[in-house]
Amino acid sequence: MKNFLLICFLFFGVHSGLEAQNTALNKQQTIAYINKLYKIAYRYKETKIDTVTVDGKVLTVFLSTGQHYRSDLSKSEPLVIARVKSGYQIRYKSAANTEEILWAIQTEDDAKRLQKAVQHLIGILKIEKKTDPFGS
Fold first, then answer.
1. Pairing mode of beta strands 79-84, 68-72
2. Angle 111-101-133 (CA atoms, 0-180°, nearest 5)?
């Protein structure tokens, strides 16, 4: 009887642990991940990333200088990582170098992680129900 209970506890414990590892991040968790990583990965020291937000299907990066940059996340094309003078940038494949979504990323590894996170966020936004009654 003790062995049976032990096996049951082990089975359910391992099973629930595997489920926890495979759960995808939701929208808020993904935005929090992008915020945290981008603040660390941003190359320039005189300007810092204040916050990254999403409103509808628009990602906005707010800088410590008060400036902000908006990017449309509703396009249906792949994201690419480009090596530029200021580091790495993430943009749509057909976009010009000046139309980046995230820029001045210090390392290629950070750029790859941010690219996956933004791609995951785009996937969430595509299946998300419209919350803006006047949006398209």
1. unpaired
2. 130
Q: How many CB atoms lie within 10 A of CB 127?
A: 6
Could you give the maximum distance between any two Cα atoms of the chain, in Å?
A: 68
The pLDDT tens digits for 46-78 are 999 999 999 989 999 999 999 999 999 999 899
Alpha-carbon gap, residue 85 to 58, rounded angstroms: 26
The number of beta carbons lying within 10 Å of the beta carbon of residue 129 is 4
> Crossing angle, helix 27-41 and helix 108-127, to 10 degrees?
160
CA dist 116 and 114 (Å) reads 5
- Number of alpha carbons in the 13 Å side-chain half-sphere of residue 85: 2
Q: For residues 50 and 36, what is the distance between their CA atoms, to the nearest angstrom?
A: 10
Report d(CA 1, CA 75) in Å as an integer.
Answer: 58
Tell the residue number behind the tokens 């996937």, with chain if given. Answer: 123
> In this predicted model, what pLDDT tens digit does every residue of 91-119 receive, in sequence order?
999 998 889 999 999 999 999 999 999 99
Tokens at 72, concatenated: 């449309």
